[in-house]
Amino acid sequence: MATSYRRKPTKAEIRRQRMEELVMFPIDWLEERSGLIGGVRYFLFRNVPSDINWMQTLGSAALTAFLVQAITGVILAMYYVPSAATDPHTGKPVAWESIVHISDDLTMGWLVRGMHRWGASVFIILMFLHMGRVFLFGAYKYPRELNWIIGVLILVSGMMEGFTGYLLPWDQTAYWATVVGINLNGTAPFLGPWLAQFLRGGQEIGGETLTRFYSLHMLVLPGAIIGLITLHLYLVIRLGVTSPPWSKDAAGMEPEEDEEGARLRPGLTRPVPRPSGASAMQAEPGGRE
Fold first, then answer.
1. What is the C-alpha separation between 147 and 153, in angstroms, rounded?
2. What single-letter DSSP state applies at residue 106?
3. Do 129 and 157 meet the contact criterion of CB atoms below 8 Å apart?
4. Would the pLDDT of 269 be above 80?
5. pTM for this structure?
6. What is the DSSP letter of 219?
7. Considering Cα of 252, then 254, then 255, then 259, what sign does the dihedral take?
8. Residue range of the domain that includes 95
9. 257 half-sphere exposure, CB direction, 13 A CA radius
10. In a domain, 42, yes or no
11. Largest CA-CA distance found in the chain, in angstroms, rounded
12. Which end of the chain is more exposed for a tag (fewer CB within 10 A), N or C?
């Protein structure tokens, strides 16, 4: 009878094993106590329809554009001064001078400001393209109506971000463009005058308006967008990705049966209806028959 012998690991293999254990220890520690690693793995490696194409990446592209806006916005906020006061030495507004300082004096400041300025337009364009794709593919239908509404709210919040950020350079173009925008809002019925008064922070556009727009642009609207995006992604993961209209297993098709008679659900994930009445009592643990 032959006897098998196990080869003794070399020093290099032992060193590699210890290194892997050292790297995996914090990950295992976090997963054991929170389950976050498993959730991230499920988010990244979940099943999607096999016939999707690049048009399904418009949502991810819009999310990437928002992350770029958030990162560059934080960097700009470290040097921007939201003050409409006039510098006594130069006779120019302090807010405008801080913008000039970012663009001309800081290392790569012109690049960060340019990415933030043009990235705002890219973010809005990508959101419009994403919503157009969702509409043409019919991905707003049952059971994704709530996700469509949340997407519309994200679009509105993103456009409000652009409007409030346009005033921050505090130059002539920003001032008069904001005057036009606030006057347009003031023509709305019922809430229009109140909304214009709220945005101006008074009877005229001034320092209070700049401070209010800065707080909305940096705190209120980004927080709302982050919360809406989180809910949007949760619903995408829960309901799945919609198949294209030309798919043989397109969304909305009735469940088919396989050879064994089991119900299949191609294309669209439908929530299982909860039982009601007597069947609900029987389904519950300890329910009375």
1. 10
2. S
3. no
4. no
5. 0.78
6. I
7. negative
8. 55-239
9. 4
10. no
11. 99
12. N
pLDDT at 289: 40
Q: 178 is written with which tokens?
A: 């904001």
Q: What is the DSSP letter of 137?
A: T
Q: Is residue 223 part of a domain?
A: yes
The tokens 């990446």 sit on which residue? 57
CA distances (Å), origin 118, targets 66, 72, 112 = 12, 11, 10
In a domain, 47, yes or no: no
> Would you state the structure tokens that stand for residue 11, as one six-digit string?
């020093």
| Chain centroid offset of residue 95 CA | 29
Enumerate residues 6+ apart whose C-beta is below 8 A from 125: none
3-state class of 248 per DSSP? coil
CA pair distance 15, 11, nearest whole angstrom: 6
Instruction: Say which CATH number the domain at 82 has.
Output: 1.20.810.10
Does 212 reside within a domain? yes
Q: Total structural domains in the chain?
A: 1
279 or 96, which is more confident? 96
At 148, is the secondary structure helix, strand, or coil? helix
- The pLDDT tens digits of the residues spanning 137-154 come to 999 998 999 999 999 999
CA gap 140, 194 in Å, rounded? 34
The reported pLDDT for the residue numbered 195 is: 93
Digit-coded pLDDT (tens) for 246-268: 877 655 444 455 555 555 444 44
